[in-house]
Design a protein that fits this description.
The chain has 45 helices and 8 strands. It is mainly α and 863 residues long. Residues 1-9, 209-220, 603-620 and 622-645 have low confidence and may be disordered.
């Protein structure tokens, strides 16, 4: 089903990645997780085809027929050894299987449909994989018993887990073209949301139930083969609604019916007071919905409605009942519609919430306010602005509840350019509010508004007031905590800011957290870690941004630019620019980062300009005029109107885009751009953003700006943490000084992870030391330079030694990795010890290593 080029390319990448994992001696296997139709079998087959022909391979496949049979997948192998699977004890079976696999010398074991394999078989597999006697590739739909036996190896770090990603927008559009139709961007996004990127479900949505009728006997029905008629009726109800209350289903069937479906892994029952029942696999639920005829669907709704009327409905159950009822044109109470839409918006399913609200045909302001929230979440800020304008202009606006007014003011804050606070029309609402819940919601949103507009001190005070007030809701305090962490780091109080960010991450586990808080806070947490130089946690947070915001800026590339992986950064950024999914400041920071990556790779500047909507020179000219990138005139008297994309403006993002662009131009003409970098840092210093000022002034100081060299020491004292130590070291560099200051700064840059800065400083220190004839300084500088150049050389996922080295050099590297001495290497290659030493010295220089130990580490990591 993954017939598009994008899907095939993704499969090839996953196959290559898994094959590489199997070659790692420290990893004993790979666990592939993906829903039915995501291409797990294709990947299993591809891995088998990619293995060396001499590698022994055992292939097993689970099914519903053998899932309940003890040692079902090993029946043939055990019978060949004279044992019966149903009679042999588990311990004896482990010994027999261990002997079989040992005869093949660490074979590769492939298991498809591992979630349909009995627990005795998987227990043996997990023990053998943990002992390193087999290398395992197991594919399953979800982590549930008995797969938890293999998942324990994953949590212990013994095997790697690969979750198959769904199709992106380009692949969905390609599938639509294959079926003879063109889809607009909004329809594509809606299909991706409903199908979760699953190719099989996507085709059913595009082609329709009639065209997919012939495929209903496919893999989706494997889980339903053993379902009895009375169970199928319950399953159809659950699938049509999406989720139903457990208490309601208990009145329609015996508890044993539900228990059997749970044991079969078909449905899931949540815990708690309002327990909900849902189908585990979305593909199975879609198959059930496709098989229900309209008349039968109406009868199911009539059967379940009287029960639901007497059962408290919340969350997914409420949403499912409202949507199912509306689909038949039956009016639904406004309170239920609002509750269902709010739940969908909280989960980020804006399209579904909008559909419910528009079908309600209600004039209730609460309905329209929630509709504005959904439209903004989906990206239609203009429509959201029109709705909010009508609500604010309504004569009855002052009659709304405190909760309604608080949410109305919050939506207006999100739709207004943060540089234009005077255009706000709902500031009077703050004086009306009395409940800490409502004031907390509004205050933390206003704090974010101020920070995005560059008013850091005002935003910090508001956020701290919410965070310290324990009467506010935990989710509002979580948003305030993450914002406080970002602002504290921007202002130089990095250690305190990291504590806030750590606490904000832990607060995600609180029970009332929704997708709104996650989507709101994760970018702030990333910026905090990024500015603090905590690269590992920044990368982890960046991956989470992609999960909650699929079309977001590829911020991992910003980390790669600092840590020396600019080849990988360029690859990531080039894809983002070609895709063209970023808007506003997101696009600018992507293009600025791409320009810097290309400059670091000594590429022609024109390749960056061809993909840019505005050249870098125009951007620098704008910066020099001190004009905000908005609808302002040169005089700065009129600002942008409501609803423009500038409502998403963020001063910090704009500053970082300017910094990246100036850094890129400074690679070719540092003296010319040094003063511009100093002025950029001065802007941040005036706002109290000492950390951002330090970043700009370090660059300006290294490029020869005397003003930056005077300003940097005072600013460095206001910044703590690793960045403060690096800034202090750079501030001590003076023209004509001895080599020690430059070497100390290069060492701090290496500790901070600023690989490119370390290489520049170390190269400068080496040149100075050579001029001063200082052997000790030359050695120290070369050591730092080699360390940084080694990282740069082996970026973009690792270099291919087979393409870099000659045959004899490969043999030498392999020998060093095995621990052979120079004399042993000479005996192997029929060379003298002196010739071996000459070759090794040449290898050290080419690979930027200092000794055999570093060469051994590289050889093993790139094997």
């Amino acid at each position: 089903m993954r017939s598009t080029r994008a899907a095939a390319k993704g499969s090839r990448a996953e196959i290559a990645e898994i094959t590489g994992f199997l070659a790692d001696p420290h990893i004993c296997g790979v666990l592939v997780i993906g829903a039915s139709g995501m291409g797990k079998t294709t990947i299993i087959n591809g891995v088998a085809a990619n293995l060396d022909p001499d590698v022994p391979v055992f292939r097993f496949r689970g099914s519903n027929l053998i899932a309940s049979r003890k040692l079902g997948i090993f029946e043939v192998l055990l019978s060949c050894e004279g044992e019966q699977a149903d009679e042999i004890a588990s311990g004896a079976a482990l010994s027999v299987m261990s002997r079989i696999f040992e005869r093949e010398q660490s074979p590769v074991v492939l298991i498809d449909n591992a979630d349909r394999v009995d627990e005795h078989s998987l227990s043996i597999i997990s023990q053998l994989a943990s002992a390193g006697r087999i290398r395992l590739v197991a594919a399953a739909e979800t982590i549930r018993p008995p797969i938890d036996l293999l998942a324990a190896l994953w949590t212990a770090g013994r095997i790697v887990r690969t979750d198959l990603e769904g199709l992106d927008e380009d692949a969905i559009a390609a599938i639509a073209r294959e079926t003879g139709g063109e889809l607009d961007d909004r329809t594509i996004a809606d299909y991706r949301q409903k199908s979760q990127g699953n190719p099989r479900m996507l085709r059913k949505l595009i082609v329709g139930a009639a065209a997919s009728a012939s495929s209903r006997r496919g893999a989706d029905h494997r889980a339903l083969w053993n379902v009895r008629p009375e169970q199928k009726r319950i399953l159809e109800m659950i699938a049509m609604a999406g989720a139903l209350p457990y208490e309601a289903l208990r009145t329609l069937c015996e508890p044993e019916v539900l228990d059997n479906l749970v044991e079969g892994g078909i449905i899931n029952i949540t815990r708690g007071r309002y327990a909900e029942v849902s189908v585990v696999e979305p593909a199975v639920a879609q198959s059930l919905r496709d098989g229900v005829q309209p008349s039968h669907s109406l009868q199911l709704l009539r059967d379940i409605t009287p029960v639901l009327e007497t059962t408290p409905l919340v969350g997914a159950a409420l949403f499912g009942q409202v949507r199912w009822t509306q689909n038949w044109g039956v009016p639904v109470d406004e309170v239920k519609v609002l509750g269902a839409a709010m739940w969908a918006n909280e989960r980020g399913d804006f399209a579904a919430a909008i559909e419910l609200l528009r079908h309600s045909n209600s004039d209730d302001p609460e309905i329209y306010l929630e509709l504005a929230r959904g439209e903004r979440g989906r990206g239609d800020s203009v429509e959201a602005e029109h709705i909010v304008d009508r609500l604010i202009s309504s004569p009855q606006v002052g009659e709304g509840s405190d909760r309604y007014l608080s949410r109305l003011a919050c939506i207006e804050l999100r739709l207004t350019d943060p540089r234009e606070p005077r255009t706000l029309r709902t500031e009077w609402i703050r004086e009306r509010l009395r409940s800490p819940v409502d004031t907390g919601r509004l205050d933390v949103t206003r704090a974010q508004f101020d920070v995005r507009g560059g008013r850091l001190d005002e935003g910090r005070k508001l956020a701290e007031r919410v965070f310290r007030n324990r009467s506010c809701l935990p989710r509002h305090r979580q948003r305030a905590c993450s914002l406080l962490g970002q602002v504290e780091i921007m202002c130089g109080r990095i250690e305190r800011g990291l504590e806030y960010l750590t606490q904000a991450e832990m607060m995600f586990a609180l029970p009332d957290t929704t997708s709104f808080e996650v989507e709101d806070s994760v970018p702030q947490i990333f910026i905090g870690f990024y500015l603090a130089g905590d690269w590992d946690r920044a990368r982890t947070t960046a991956r989470r941004i992609v999960e909650v915001q699929p079309g977001s800026v590829p911020v991992t590339a910003l980390v790669d630019l600092w840590t020396g992986h600019f080849t990988r950064a360029r690859q990531t950024l080039s894809k983002a620019v070609a895709k063209g999914s970023q808007r506003g400041d997101g696009r600018e920071i992507v293009q600025a980062a791409l320009h810097l990556a290309e400059g670091l790779l000594q590429m022609r500047e024109t390749s960056s300009r061809r993909t840019s909507t505005a050249s870098a020179d125009d951007r620098i000219a704008r910066f020099r005029r001190h004009e905000p990138d908005s609808g302002k005139t040169v005089g700065g008297t009129t600002g942008p109107v409501h609803g423009l994309p500038n409502a998403d403006y963020d001063w910090c993002q704009d500053y970082l885009a300017d910094l990246l662009e100036l850094q890129a131009h400074a690679l070719r003409n540092p003296a010319k751009l040094a003063d511009d970098l100093h002025r950029l840092g001065t802007e941040a210093e005036e706002r109290g953003a000492h950390t951002l000022a330090v970043f700009a002034w370090m660059e300006a100081s290294r490029h020869g700006s005397t003003a930056a060299q005077r300003s940097l020491p005072d600013a460095a004292e206001k910044v703590d943490g690793n960045l403060g130590r690096l800034a202090t070291a750079v501030a001590k560099i003076r023209p004509g000084d001895d080599d020690e200051a430059v070497i100390a700064a290069a060492d701090e840059a290496l500790k901070f992870g600023a690989i490119v800065m370390c290489a520049d400083l170390a190269r400068s220190a080496r040149d100075r030391a050579v001029q001063n004839n200082n052997p000790t300084a030359i050695k120290q500088a070369r050591m730092l330079l080699d360390s940084s150049l080694r990282t740069i050389t082996f970026d973009a996922g690792g270099a291919d030694l087979s393409a870099i080295l000659t045959t004899i050099e490969k043999q030498l590297v392999n020998g060093v990795a095995e621990g052979a001495s120079n004399s042993e290497l000479g005996d192997r290659l029929h060379l003298s010890v002196r010739t071996v030493e000459w070759h090794l010295g040449r290898l050290y220089r080419r690979l930027h290593v200092r000794d055999r130990q570093e060469l051994k580490v590289i050889a093993r990591s790139l094997a």
